[in-house]
């Protein structure tokens, strides 16, 4: 699987055991090199809330592969699309909101499917409990008694 920004096993990068693309593992100098930005720019983006790297116990920044992909996207939006940093922050916030809403829709869809399956199962159990000695009657069979009005 390729990680964010094309970093992954295909590019010669393998995740250490127990880690993934969200695991903070790169110091700021390595993250700057991987993202193509200056370390001071990364610090500035952190202060502005564009990218929020993990922190060590001593307070040092540790960037994940997802952070590096986000840094690359910030750079692309800024340089290629001409979006200012406030606009980029809004875009990132909206994308995060969309991701959260899509996850919630998936969760609710799964809950509805489970509730539907439970209802179907309960209905099947009720139908299975019906007495078998009852004779089913066809619905279209009917008895009509006709009493004509007598003329006086």
Provide tags for this entry:
152 residues, mainly alpha, Multidrug-efflux Transporter Regulator, Chain: A, Domain 2, two-stranded antiparallel ribbon, 4 helices, 51% helix, MerR_fam, coiled coil, DNA-bd_dom_put_sf, DNA binding
The figure for the number of domains is: 2
Structural class: mainly alpha
Q: Indicate the overall shape.
A: elongated
Indicate the radius of gyration in whole angstroms.
32 Å
End-to-end distance: 95 Å
Mean pLDDT level: 86
Strands, count: 2
Q: How do the SSEs run, as a string of H and E? A: HHEEHH
Helices, by number, come to: 4
Please summarize the sheet with the most strands. 2 strands, antiparallel
Helix content: 40-55%
The CATH topology assignment of the largest domain is Multidrug-efflux Transporter Regulator, Chain: A, Domain 2
Our estimate of the beta-strand percent is under 5%
**What is the CATH C-level name of the largest domain?**
Mainly Alpha
Q: List segments where confidence is low: pLDDT < 50 over at least 5 consecutive residues.
A: none
- Strand arrangement in the largest pleated sheet: 1-2
CATH architecture of the largest domain: Orthogonal Bundle
């Amino acid at each position: 699987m390729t990680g964010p920004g094309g970093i992954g096993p295909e590019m010669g990068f393998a995740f250490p055991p127990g880690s993934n693309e969200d695991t903070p593992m790169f110091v700021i100098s390595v993250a700057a090199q991987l993202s193509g930005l200056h370390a001071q720019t990364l610090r500035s983006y952190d202060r502005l809330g564009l990218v929020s790297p993990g922190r060590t116990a001593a307070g040092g920044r540790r960037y994940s592969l997802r952070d590096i992909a986000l840094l690359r996207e910030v750079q692309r939006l800024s340089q290629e699309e001409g979006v200012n940093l406030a606009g980029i922050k809004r875009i990132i916030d909206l994308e995060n909101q969309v991701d959260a809403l899509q996850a919630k829709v998936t969760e609710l869809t799964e809950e509805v499917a489970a509730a539907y399956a439970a209802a179907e199962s309960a209905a099947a159990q009720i139908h299975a409990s019906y007495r078998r000695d009852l004779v089913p009657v066809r619905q279209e069979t009917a008895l009509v008694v006709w009493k004509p009005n007598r003329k006086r």
